[in-house]
Write a structure and sequence with these properties.
- This protein has 350 residues and is of the alpha/beta class.
- The protein has a single domain, classed as NAD(P)-binding Rossmann-like Domain (Rossmann fold, 3-Layer(aba) Sandwich).
- Helix content is 39%, strand content 17%.
- The strands form four sheets. It has a seven-stranded parallel β-sheet with strand order 3-2-1-4-5-6-11, with helices on both faces.
- Helix 3 packs parallel to helix 5 and helix 9 packs across helix 11.
- The longest helix has 21 residues.
- Its EC number is 5.1.3.2.
- Belongs to the NAD(P)-dependent epimerase/dehydratase family.
- One of its GO terms (molecular function) is UDP-glucose 4-epimerase activity.
- Homodimer.
Length: 350
């Protein structure tokens, strides 16, 4: 029998790519999502999940479920015996979190507490948590390793990730049979090579590369570059971009690590290389063959100049390393965007 893994927020960008990798690694994912970052498809199944079923010629159990709905969560855990949980569900826009901090604290923290309490009640003690490099705040040194101080976050979104990490660490200390791997992502981009699933932001994209891709495909007239006076190679913000499929493979490595009764462990998932906004624009122009118009805009509140990973701990302890280069990331992103100019709604009858 394949091990059942609950995937919260599994219809979203990163979650859906992890569902593909789980199936290919021989696990049986059970996916829950509340559609806050996903598109509803036919038969009341998320469009991303429907496409994965078709792509891999399989069926996936999917439930529309909000982690704030504790009774629904209890019901799901009564029905299934999960070997582990991958927790992606949560609100995730930095700018929005600055404008709506209470909403971010309520949704992200309550959802995680509900999940962990229900896991505890049903003797499910293995967790992979989708964290973020935002927990590091403004970098005190580069590259950022896991020993870098955390908690001085520059926005409420980052603080929710930090608080959830602390909750998980404290819980693992008090409950010795718990194992958790906290994965601090840098900047996931790209898409599955099939072009069938990818990042499809609802409304105006909050992240750079989906916005750039939408400019390239003609959905948006130009890109706003927030700040060109940072102390970086060309004055624009530098980030560590990682292919979403590499990131997903990191989650499979984390699941395997849980088998070692590892307690609570933290790993960066990044490439160790930083690229500026304008370097990313040029790389996307090359991949798409399109001109990407941009305008310089004021800095955004909560943004930092540079952030890139030291990923050596994940290489050493998880046996994981990022395989795809920037060119491949942009090629896969362009394939997804050009095949799906309006995102997942391309495949959904209006």
């Amino acid at each position: 029998m394949a091990e059942k893994v609950l995937v919260t927020g599994g219809a979203g960008y990163i979650g859906s790519h992890c569902v593909v990798e789980l199936i290919e690694a021989g696990y049986q994912p059970v996916v829950v999502d509340n559609y806050s970052n996903a598109v509803r498809g036919e038969g009341n199944v998320a469009e991303s999940i429907r496409r994965i079923e078709k792509l891999l010629n399989t069926s996936i159990e999917f439930h529309e479920l909000d982690l704030l709905d504790r009774p629904a969560l209890e019901k799901l855990f009564k029905k299934h015996s999960f070997s582990a949980v991958m927790h992606f569900a949560g609100l995730k826009a930095v700018g929005e979190s600055v404008e709506q901090p209470l909403r971010y604290y309520r949704v992200n923290l309550t959802a995680s507490m509900n999940l962990m309490e229900v896991m505890q009640a049903h003797n499910v003690h293995n967790l992979v948590f989708s964290s973020s490099a935002t927990v590091y705040g403004d970098p005190q040194h580069l590259p950022i390793d896991e020993r870098h101080p955390v908690g001085a976050c520059t926005n409420p979104y980052g603080k929710t990730k930090y608080f959830i990490e602390e909750m998980i660490k404290d819980h693992c200390k008090s409950e010795k049979d718990w194992n958790a791997v906290l994965l601090r992502y840098f900047n996931p981009i790209g898409a599955h090579s099939s072009g069938q699933i990818g990042e499809d932001p609802q409304g105006i994209p909050n992240n750079l590369m989906p916005y750039v891709a939408q400019v390239a495909v003609g959905r948006r007239p130009f890109l706003n570059v927030f700040g060109n006076d940072y102390e970086t190679v060309d004055g624009t913000g530098v980030r560590d971009y990682i292919h979403v499929v590499d990131l997903a493979k990191g989650h499979i490595a984390a699941l395997k690590k849980l088998k070692d009764n590892c307690g609570c462990q933290v790993y960066n998932l990044g490439t160790g290389k930083g690229y500026s906004v304008l370097q990313m624009v040029k790389a996307m122009e090359k991949a798409s063959g399109k001109e990407i118009k941009y305008k310089i805009a004021p800095r955004r509140e909560g943004d930092i100049a540079s952030c890139y990973a030291d990923p050596t701990l994940a290489e050493k302890e998880l046996g994981w390393t990022a395989a795809f280069d920037l060119e491949r990331m942009c090629e896969d992103l362009w394939r997804w965007q050009s095949m799906n100019p309006t995102g997942f709604t391309n495949g959904v009858p209006s």
